[in-house]
Design a protein that fits this description.
- Chain B: Its cofactor is [2Fe-2S] cluster; [3Fe-4S] cluster.
- The structure holds 2 protein chains of 2 kinds.
- By secondary structure, chain A is an alpha/beta fold.
- Chain A is 37% helix and 15% strand.
- Chain A has 17 helices and 20 strands.
- The two termini of chain A are 32 Å apart.
- Chain B has 2 domains: 3-105, Roll (Ubiquitin-like (UB roll)); 123-250, Fumarate Reductase Iron-sulfur Protein, Chain B, domain 2 (Orthogonal Bundle), CATH 1.10.1060.
- Chain B has helices at 33-46, 123-130, 152-162, 169-173, 180-191, 200-213, 224-228, 236-250; strands at residues 3-9, 18-24, 69-70, 73-74, 101-105, 114-116, 119-120.
- The termini of chain B are far apart.
- The chains are: A alpha/beta, B alpha+beta.
- Chains A and B meet through helix 3, helix 5, helix 6, helix 11 and helix 12 of A and helix 1, helix 2 and helix 3 of B.
Chain lengths: 648, 257
């Protein structure tokens, strides 16, 4: 099917995980087999790390401590701004402090199953193993986790798991973990092991003789575009939710680094796997610039409903009980309002599509605490959810203690990313990809409190142990700005910058970004079909064409120019959007966050097709006009047996 | 509603700046303050003018990127009786009324040079952290997490201090442009934890020394910092810093040269 849109190339496989030992020994065996670099030789080796979130910040600090020469790049003014800072809920670890039956194996099992059997067992098992070291590390750094009166760490259950394995720092866990990594990174900067490049954006990857050897970057303050060289390059640049324009990501979050690396030869895996979070504050107008997520813990006490009748625009408090449809409780009697994220999101979309949505544009459902307030009393609700209620009131101007909240799903996380092997190395030797920027651990759906775990696992513990094996064959032949590959990459970036500034058309970058985002949300969002995806694939090239002939980017290249930054990012989002739709179209099954209308059970639930789609789709970039090439990595499940999820 | 904005425009650190007046029309009360500036910028781009630069990123009040003086108050905190202290991105236009004139200026402090318009360079704050705002715990060296007990009240107080987002509002609001509340929040966070004790004396003297080197002013306990802080970081942290500093100096701690 869809053969006009892509071709199938050779299969791909991970060759680094030692398959001759049981899964529980593979990580230790890999570290044993990996080559080491003598400490005295490490200072002769340079590593570029792009991004300073949980993955990049922890990796740069750890590699600096190990004695490598590290160059750290970030686009914001300070490493502490990276969007990991906004994560609320918590971080999972298989400590079994609650004596409730948790173990490394259970965390591994839950994550493979939660990912709907589309992740690689070896990587997930390792993630579960190192989860316990992360908590130790963060506590040693002084991260102020929530504690019990006896001074021990507190845990909670999160995202529907039956064990309490989530560590948290009030509703600001990401902030506190990030500051731990940031402080470790600043310490290395003071020690001189990490060189800093603030407000500097990577715009291309320099590949020499098949190896990643540097980057082209733009100093966002002076506008200077320059080349930087290293023995290895690490991308920790986060996810690509901003393809959808409106998402819970930061405004600056972008796909440029991974997309440019993809165009230099790194395969892009599972681009269509996106996570849509059900409890966000709805869109309220055309000018809206971002969406705000509220912790899904709200669904523990809030009841989700819409009016039974279409177009019922009465005050929700005036709608009698028997004219309300508590649709999650109706459809999923055993899980009710606590069904997983993907299901809660899709059902919200369904009732809004039926015309029963609430709020100004009909894109919202009620999350009602009236019953909980009666049962528990207002003080109990305040104690549990006070900060979330305040945030809601501040943004919407409505009092959720009096009127039901309105919520709607928003794009929140992308499970897809650059393909990496067990060592987190991409298909370009010397290019490593960590954190949300890679595809490796969450399959088709990420569980709550697992993003922070993966970012820190990759940065503190995995990459610093695997990158040695590659660097042991270095230092590589010296490359400088005069090398033809560097000159060419630099010229291409300059040419693109000049071209963007010279179009001087009639539309702003933001107007294109909004148009692309709306199209992607409608046609490649919570539910995808061959029809919707074909429509998107017809329209995206037209948007691209119009962008490159009619965008207006003001200002100059040689100055601080935020419009130019945004335009470059949107140009890449448009190309990535097309690949996301091709991937979504080729995967004619429903799994995790990817719901294909054609692949559902008679009662409307997601239907996976393990016979035909139990593989990672790793895409090779091809020039415009040539369809991309699909490389399949077969997924095998030795330890967790394939099963269909059910929440009825 | 329709508003008159007077915005600080400055092309670069080297050039002189001035206030420029703009009209924005059809502002919805549901817009955030930054969305209102987005609307102004789209209009400026289509009119062939240079849009206003300002730092922003998460737009949910946690990254610390955004921050401008609104009618002379950092993030607009203190202008509205019924509005909690917050970041600029969490201020919504329903706090204003039709016909209002709003002055918008960058953070003003010697240690925060203007980059362009409303965007300033706050890297001085990172250098204060570099001088001692950490616990030395290289990756892999950590003991088992439960081997360190932390009394809940200390952990909670440390967390309150650690919620500082490094936006710089405290500096902008202070008549002396002092970064004392910023520095004190980190000294307090780490000083309350058992893990932070070995470096406690050196930390406080080095951070204060760096703060002076960066050109921040001295603290005279005025309290504008805390009144402008989007996270409500309390003045108690400054008392704690002073307590730690005296103790450290008496114990013979001196800044690294």
């Amino acid at each position: 099917m869809a053969l006009d849109l892509f071709t199938v190339g050779d299969p791909i496989a991970d060759t680094k995980a030692p398959m001759d030992v049981p899964i529980g020994e593979r990580w230790s065996e890999r570290r044993f087999r990996a080559k080491l670099v003598n400490r005295a030789n490490r200072r002769k080796l340079t590593v570029i790390v792009v991004g300073t979130g949980l993955a990049g910040g922890s990796a740069a600090a750890t590699l600096g401590e190990a004695g490598y020469k590290v160059k750290s790049f970030w686009y914001q003014d300070s490493p502490r701004r990276a969007h990991s800072v906004a994560a609320q809920g918590g971080i999972n670890a298989a400590k079994n402090y609650r004596n409730d039956g948790d173990s490394v194996h259970r965390l591994f099992y839950d994550t493979v199953k939660g990912g709907d059997f589309r992740s690689r067992e070896n990587n997930v098992h390792r993630l579960a193993e190192v989860s316990v070291n992360i908590i130790d590390q963060c506590v040693a750094q002084g991260v102020p986790f929530a504690r019990e009166y006896g001074g021990l760490l507190d845990n909670r259950s999160f995202g529907g798991t039956q064990v309490s394995r989530t560590f948290y720092a009030r509703g600001q866990t990401g902030q506190q973990l990030l500051y731990g990594a940031y402080q470790a990174l600043e310490r290395q900067m003071a020690a001189g092991t990490v060189e800093q490049f603030a407000r500097t954006e990577m715009l291309d990857l320099i590949v020499v003789d098949g190896r990643a050897r540097g980057i082209v970057a733009r100093d966002l303050v002076t506008g200077e575009i320059s080349t930087h060289f290293a023995d290895a390059v690490v991308l920790a640049t986060g996810g690509y939710s901003n393809v959808f324009y409106l998402s819970t990501n930061a405004k600056g979050s972008n796909a440029t680094a991974i997309w440019r690396a993809h165009k230099r030869g790194a395969l892009f895996a599972n681009p269509c796997y996106t996570q849509i979070h059900p409890t966000c504050i709805p869109v309220h107008g055309e000018y809206q610039s971002k969406l705000t997520l509220m912790s899904e813990s709200l669904r523990n006490d809030g009841r989700v409903w819409v009016p039974k009748e279409r177009g019922d625009d009465r005050d929700p408090r005036q709608i009698p009980e028997d004219e309300r449809d508590y649709y999650l409780e109706r459809l999923y009697p055993s899980f009710g309002n606590l069904v997983p994220r993907d299901i809660a999101s899709r059902q919200a979309k369904n009732v809004c599509d039926e015309g029963r949505g609430v709020g100004p544009n009909g894109l919202g459902v009620y999350l009602d605490f009236a019953e909980a307030m009666q049962r528990l009393g207002r003080p109990a609700i305040e104690a549990k959810y006070g900060n979330l209620f305040d945030m809601y009131a501040q943004i919407t101007g409505e009092d959720p203690y009096e009127v039901p909240m309105r919520i709607y799903p928003a794009v929140h996380y992308t499970m897809g990313g650059l393909w990496v092997d067990y060592d987190l190395q991409s298909t370009i030797p010397g290019l490593f990809v960590i954190g949300e920027a890679n595809f490796s651990d969450h399959g088709a759906n990420r569980l709550g409190a697992s993003a922070l775990m993966q970012g820190l696992a990759d940065g503190y513990f995995v990459l610093p142990n695997t990158i040695n094996d590659y660097l042991a064959s270095g230092p590589f032949e010296k490359v400088d700005a005069g090398h033809p590959a560097a000159v060419q990459a630099l010229e291409e970036v300059r040419a693109q910058t000049d071209r963007l500034l010279s179009i001087n058309g009639n539309r702003t970058t933001a107007s294109f970004h909004r148009e692309l985002g709306r199209l992607m949300f409608d046609l490649c969002g919570m539910e995808r079909s061959e029809e919707s995806l074909r429509k998107a694939l017809d329209r995206i090239p037209e948007i691209r064409q119009e962008f490159w002939t009619n965008v207006r980017v003001p200002g100059e290249a040689g100055r601080f120019n935020q419009s130019l930054e945004h335009a470059g990012r949107v140009a890449d989002f448009i190309e990535l959007a097309e690949l996301m739709c091709v991937d979504a179209l080729h995967r004619n099954e429903s799994c995790g966050g990817h719901f294909r209308a054609e692949s559902q059970t008679p009662d409307g639930e997601a239907l996976r097709d393990d016979e035909n789609y139990a593989y990672v789709a790793a895409w090779e970039w091809t020039p415009e006009g040539v369809p991309p090439v699909l490389h399949k990595e077969a997924l095998e499940f030795e330890y967790v047996h394939l099963a269909q999820r059910s929440y009825k | 509603m329709n508003l008159k904005l007077r915005v600080w425009r400055q092309r670069s650190a080297a050039e002189k700046g001035k206030m420029v007046t703009y009209q924005v029309t059809d502002v919805s009360p549901d817009m955030s303050f930054l969305e209102m500036l987005d609307v102004l910028n789209e209009q400026l781009i289509l009119d062939g003018e240079d849009p206003v630069s300002f730092d922003h990123d998460c737009r949910e009040g946690i990254c610390g990127s955004c921050g401008v003086m609104i009618n002379g108050r950092a993030h607009g905190n203190g202008l509205f009786d019924d509005h909690p202290q917050t970041t600029t991105c969490q201020l919504h236009m329903r706090s204003f009324k039709d016909g209002d004139t709003i002055d918008i200026e960058p953070w003003r402090a010697t240690a925060f040079p203007v980059i362009k318009d409303l965007a300033v360079d706050r890297s001085a704050l990172d250098r204060i952290i570099q001088s001692g705002g950490y616990i030395s715990a290289p990756t892999g060296t950590a003991p088992e997490a439960h081997s360190i007990l932390v009394a809940k009240k200390d952990s909670d107080a440390a967390f309150d201090a650690a919620t500082c987002i490094g936006c710089g509002a405290c500096v902008a609001a202070c008549p002396n442009a002092s970064s004392m509340l910023f520095t004190a929040s980190k000294v307090t966070h780490l000083g309350l934890m058992p893990q932070g004790q070995p470096e406690r004396n050196d930390r406080v003297v080095n951070m204060i020394h760096q703060q002076d080197l960066e050109g921040f002013g001295g603290c005279t306990n005025i309290g504008e910092c805390s009144a402008s802080c989007p996270k409500g970081i309390s003045m108690e942290n400054i008392s704690r810093l002073n307590h730690d500093l005296l103790g450290a100096l008496r114990a013979g701690a001196r800044p690294k040269s």
